[in-house]
Amino acid sequence: MSTWLITGGAGMLAQDVEARVQAAGQRAVVLSRKELDITDPASVAAALAEHAPAVVVNCAAWTAVDDAEEQEAAALAVNGDGPRRLAEACRETGAVLLHVSTDYVFAGDATAPYAEDAPTAPRSAYGRTKLAGEEAVLELLPDTGYVVRTAWLYGAGGGNFVRTMIRLEGVKDTLDVVDDQRGQPTWTADLADRLVRLGEGALAGTAPAGVYHGTSSGETTWFGLTRRIFELLGADPERVRPTTSEAFKRPAPRPAYSVLGHDRWQAAGIDPIRDWREALDAAFPALPKD
């Protein structure tokens, strides 16, 4: 039995990774920020010394995209320096590091899915800080470092767009939802499954290190996603009306196109995540409806 250390233990992805690790018959150690501050080298070193993990899954992140515009240094400490500290410790102990990153490292202006080796060009502070974390992991762990980019996450264990739309359906007659941003809604349980399979492949020597894209197959807009949510609730999807990003201006620019390609999974002998519609249908019964 190998030990998997999961950072960011309070988040919805970490909860699903924990469940998936345990289902695989391995030992999961899940640490919250209070228990493991990834920005503190001493805290990181102590955690790895105590638990001696074979695999570290970094789910800790500064995810407040808009706040990062005014607090980039603070976001960089978590998203850039934190992964570097983890990578340094993993290099010393020989542990595999699976680092979760984001579509925001791209400019978001493509017209075809971004390949894993496509040029990065973040347009926000959040994207820049996440790219710094990616670069640290790939630089320090060329043979045992894995960057898994994801996007549009939803799940049962935390706040997210899908759960918000479920709640709003019960209190709003109509909803105006952005229809000019394209992406891939991704269930945290599906991402957790691929992270664990990738870690298992890393330990077995069958999954090459580097960048992978952990998003659902297919694509839609926030508007298209919301209409499907209404359908699953038995509500009239015509109550969802399309609007533009211009109507919801925010401090940080949102990528207009966040569709990621999945070719790299073939090298690891792992299937990409299923279509977003199939995943949402499977996830829906387990999502809180309040």
UniProtKB/TrEMBL annotation:
Pfam families: RmlD_sub_bind (PF04321). SUPFAM superfamilies: NAD(P)-binding Rossmann-fold domains. Keywords: NADP, Oxidoreductase. It comes from the Bacteria. InterPro entries: dTDP_dehydrorham_reduct, NAD(P)-bd_dom_sf, RmlD-like-bd. The keyword Aminoacyl-tRNA synthetase does not apply. One of its GO terms (molecular function) is dTDP-4-dehydrorhamnose reductase activity. Belongs to the dTDP-4-dehydrorhamnose reductase family. This is dTDP-4-dehydrorhamnose reductase. It comes from Glycomyces niveus.
